[in-house]
């Protein structure tokens, strides 16, 4: 089993943090997106959707989509549980992971891809007005997350989960847009300091 | 347990199809989005992210995000399995469900929200250029799906799954944009006829 990895991009980092939390080390195959290595014919055979990372099993089976990779790892290595324990907690982890992905993460990505010079090559063309529409959404989603973290230590509740990993990756991704967490979001700042201090955060 | 439902919108339909495939009938609480009923204070107490549908448990616990609701239902009612059986099949269902959501579904939604008069109220303002950028993506994602359906009867492989439900909802959502499946995508057309003929499709 080996992981086709993409260096500093947020989704590959998400899977590396997940593996680090599981105490697992997989062989990494570097994929340099800036050299379009994810668009080669050989890579398309692994993932016709061209996204990274991709988990390649020993028989050549390829699993892409970061959360699908993480779920597969969770089934093979259930401890520590990162998708929740029991039907209700698992539903909450899924709910929060999706709220972060379709909310904060997607908004940060839109700002990057449509207003940052370094994001231009990822799109057919940049639509600066789309970036502008997403800038206030980033702040709105940070506030929603702060409200949740006022009530719970972690994004999905009492336990560290994949929702914390997704949120950390999204928040750190904001740096490239020079977006900072507003000072008044104290709960979010407290959470960020705590999850960033875990050994996995440097993965 | 009851479902706060949203009529014709695609995500509420996704959960209703899922329930129909499970042979379950839940009490539905209608939420009229066109009257902004999902933005009232009482609805925000159920879901601060304001999306529908929301599953409300008997003790008042609220689960939102369609796929989180479906996973919770799957845990309570495992048959027939709609998230796959075994680690690898479950990973494939997750992978394909996400490919459809972040690919086809998101592109169709962007076209609707940013170019259709009926989508204007869902956004702070419409960005027609963003809709234009997404129109060719819809066709690209239909082709990727056709290629998968050339090899397998269903979106995630041999078994009908939530990935088929998400894909059907996305394809039917195209109608409002007057986008049709191109005639040469025979496998996609064959699949669409088959999944549309299931009793659940009218849910």
Overview of this protein structure:
The structure is a homodimer of 203-residue chains. With 203 residues, chain A is of the alpha+beta class. The first copy, chain A, is built from seven helices and four strands. Chain A has helices at 10-22, 41-46, 66-76, 87-115, 128-149, 162-173, 186-196; strands at residues 2-5, 28-30, 54-56, 62-64. Chain A has a four-stranded mixed sheet with strand order 2-1-3-4, with helices on one face. In chain A, helix 1 (10-22) links the parallel strand 1 (2-5) and strand 2 (28-30). In chain A, helix 1 runs antiparallel to helix 6 and helix 4 (87-115) runs antiparallel to helix 5. The mean pLDDT of chain A is 96. Chains A and B meet through helix 3, helix 4 and helix 5 of A and helix 3, helix 4 and helix 5 of B.
């Amino acid at each position: 089993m080996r992981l086709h990895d993409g260096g500093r991009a947020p989704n590959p980092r998400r899977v590396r943090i997940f593996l680090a939390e599981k105490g697992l080390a997989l062989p990494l195959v570097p994929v340099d997106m800036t050299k379009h290595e994810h668009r080669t014919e050989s890579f398309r055979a692994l993932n016709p959707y061209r996204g990274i990372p991709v988990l390649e099993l020993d028989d050549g089976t390829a699993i892409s989509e970061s959360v699908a990779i993480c779920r597969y790892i969770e089934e093979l290595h259930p401890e520590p549980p990162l998708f929740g324990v029991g039907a209700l907690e698992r539903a909450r982890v899924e709910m929060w992971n999706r709220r972060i992905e379709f909310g904060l993460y997607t908004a940060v990505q839109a700002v990057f891809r449509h207003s940052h010079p370094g994001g231009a090559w990822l799109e057919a063309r940049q639509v600066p007005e789309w970036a502008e529409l997403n800038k206030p959404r980033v702040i709105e989603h940070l506030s929603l997350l702060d409200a949740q973290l006022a009530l719970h230590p972690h994004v999905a509740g009492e336990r560290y989960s994949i929702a914390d990993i997704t949120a950390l990756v999204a928040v750190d991704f904001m740096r490239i847009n020079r977006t900072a967490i507003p000072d008044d979001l104290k709960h979010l700042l407290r959470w960020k300091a705590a999850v960033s201090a875990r050994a996995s955060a440097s993965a």
